[in-house]
């Protein structure tokens, strides 16, 4: 996912969000709740696809004004928490991953959903949703490899520790939490033993000498120019890069892929809850989900997404793979993720 925003555009969007916030204050201009929705999302190609397949055809073309507040997920979370004290949110719908949605729900800043107002919610993939979270797209962390250079790829996360892969593996700082859960899996067979997994990760750093990139795009470049032959990233990313012409294969790890679920929540103190619900239902529209999945290669959360059998087989997981997907313990992640990031930056990233 692209989480970047051009500075001049960010200022404009921040102003839009600020205007929405002013409408909530005494003396602020009145706004029709049915006419606007303020959406906090990532920028870049992720937002471009959101506009193309959901926001424009299903909302803006039907008379709903979509104001966009784009930026990093950490910024979105901070805004929700800051505005909690005034019980007024400058945004209505917040795009989050499932772990961050859990954290924000525990903080009381995203709403318990009335799913009767989200008809498409009835068709979501079992296990992806939550009473406060609308799942949208999902994937899993797999082993992506250059088929010209790797004829017999690692078959598991644990295989990456083998000497033959030293100096050939690329990681990105954006997925630090996935790698820390991977260390836990390799160390103890679960994803709630990260403290034990840290030692395995430091062994991995010393022996495999992985190259660490700032973001997905830089990791893609590293694969393309031969700096690395293997990347640990989401299946959707590997398929995107393959579609761009790179000779890549994807190996589903024997342990089961660590899952990621992207979706959205309704802000607890949203000003425009009616249009917020309309937005959440539009996200799950079967045709919109098909277009998004074809463009992004993320698997759709709606079981009725109108994908061709060929496309579904390519981007989704088989029944056996889906059964082995590893879902994080969200309470554990919420309690520890800040400390994990500090450890990653101070220890692994410096090793």
From TrEMBL:
One Pfam family linked to the record: SBP_bac_8
GO-annotated molecular function: thiamine binding; thiamine pyrophosphate binding
Gene Ontology biological-process annotations: thiamine transport
Gene3D superfamilies referenced in this protein's UniProt entry, alphabetically: Periplasmic binding protein-like II
UniProt xrefs under InterPro entries: SBP, TAT_signal
Record's keyword terms, sorted: Signal
GO CC annotation terms, alphabetical: outer membrane-bounded periplasmic space
Keyword Plastid among UniProt keywords: no
Keyword Signal: yes
Cleaved signal peptide residues: none
Protein name: Extracellular solute-binding protein
UniProt source species: Paenirhodobacter populi
